[in-house]
Amino acid sequence: MSSLAELRRPRVAAQNRKLRHLRGISLRNLCLSVESSDERLEAEKHLQVLHHLPSAEEAASPSAKQRHETRHFTLRQLVDASLGDVFFSLHLDDHVEPFYVSEMRQRSANFDFRFFDLTLQPPVVSRSSHVIVRVWSTTPDRPEWVFVLEHVVHLRRLNFIRSLVGRRFPPNALVFHLDDGLYSLDFAAEIADAKQAPAVASSSYGSLMKLANLEASIRDALETRDDLLSHIEAVLAQSPPDATDAAREDVARAEKYVAKQRRAIRQAESRRHQLRTSLAARRAAIVRGREAQASAEADMAARRDGLAADKTLLDRTADQIHGQRRRICSDLADIFPITPERDAAPLSFRICNLPLPNSRYDATTADEDVLSAALGLAALLARHLQLYLSYPLPYPLCPYGSRSLARDDISHLPDSSAQPRREFPLYLPRGGSTTGQWRFEYGWFLLNKDIEALCASQGLRVVDIRHSLPNLKYLLYVCSAGSRDLPERHRGGVKGLWAGSLRGMVRAVGSEDDATSAAHSSWDDALSDGKLTLRTDGLREDVAG
User: Fold this and answer.
1) Coiled-coil intervals in this record (predicted)?
2) Cβ(385)–Cβ(455) under 8 Å?
3) Hey, is 111 helix, strand or coil?
4) What pLDDT, on a 0 to 100 scale, did the predictor assign at position 17?
5) Which of the 8 DSSP states describes residue 341?
6) N or C: which terminus of the chain carries fewer CB neighbours within 10 A?
7) pLDDT in tens, 219-263
8) Can you tell me the distance from the alpha carbon of 353 to that of 535, in angstroms, rounded to the nearest whole number?
9) Which stretch of DSSP H or E encloses residue 70?
């Protein structure tokens, strides 16, 4: 209960107070002995007397320091004597065992213990009107517990007090907290005047007696239940335990464990079989690998002798290929002479005495036939270079003289038709069509990209891909350059090729005798009439003879 409770009268009459109405107990002004209390009061009286304040010299003297330390030690002993750790116990009559023991409160002189509920106690406790309170305490200098006090309290003799504020409690004073307020034996009762209120009808005597009889019946039923429970427990304790159910549970548990272990054994055996099969397969693979390794080592040992000769042959063949490429590029440079153009802009060249401007040109002044023929010669030269340099062009070229074409099979063309035209002309269109002009410029661009790819295959960097003839001349110059002499042409050259092709044609025409005579006659005619003329800058080379 709070000490600031509102002023009021007790709700429960004194003759009706029972232990079930008790909620808590407080202890005020702990005193372990009467002598110590008298000494403490005497010390308080001395402390209230005014003392002379010593000067600085007197306070610094050893005797003043000693008196101060002695007084401080005495006060500390008095304080320690009045403080301690406390708990209490509640007893009924002279029973040794308490029916309630409080918690322990530490290092204080005034204690407010935790509230409790005695309504759940047996009727002999909850209906009792008196109780024995025993208080126990201990101090730091005495570790053992000391019996402080014992009060036999009759709840009917308790006096109602309004509040704990402004009261001077005697040593070891007990304050009882009941449902309707604070009670004590050390103070007179303070009961306020009853408020004038009209009478209210309450329960009749018969109703109260019925309620009492009902409560007694419930108590008897609870006591009977407790007797039956104790009797049943006694019978069960005397009869031997039946271990059948426990044994069945143990057997079922053992069977489950055995089944689990059998499954684990089967899985382990299956795993062991798989591992054995895997190990056998691996051992066989290791044996086959060692055999293959031994065979490869024997083969390597047998071929190691010829490796040096193969390397020498490879180097000689690569040198011969390089020499033949130099000779072919030199021949191509002679067959397709690329010469600078006089009295023209820088980097203006002619191919076979036909001027070919760079990608930027004046379409109004350019000769369509000359420009188309020059582009056809450049496409033919690029196509030959891809064969001799063993580097395929990304955009195939179809050299048809002044009607050459370039094909783009890579790019995504913006054409609405299902199969867009991928051949782009290398000649100027007739009639000045815008689409034709665009296709011609794109075809020229593809030719320049092919020339750039050929230069890149030989490790050359092109400054501007729009310079078609300068890039071709640069490529031919680099591919034909070298410190050694050019190798000679193989005997039989073009004549042998023509003879072999004509003999094949003759064999496929007539019978054996007629075919032979016809072949000889056609061969003679072909040798006399079949002349391949390659036009260069004023140079004619008679290939047939």
Assistant:
1) 211-278
2) no
3) strand
4) 92
5) P
6) C
7) 899 999 999 999 999 988 888 877 888 899 999 999 999 999 999
8) 10
9) helix 62-82
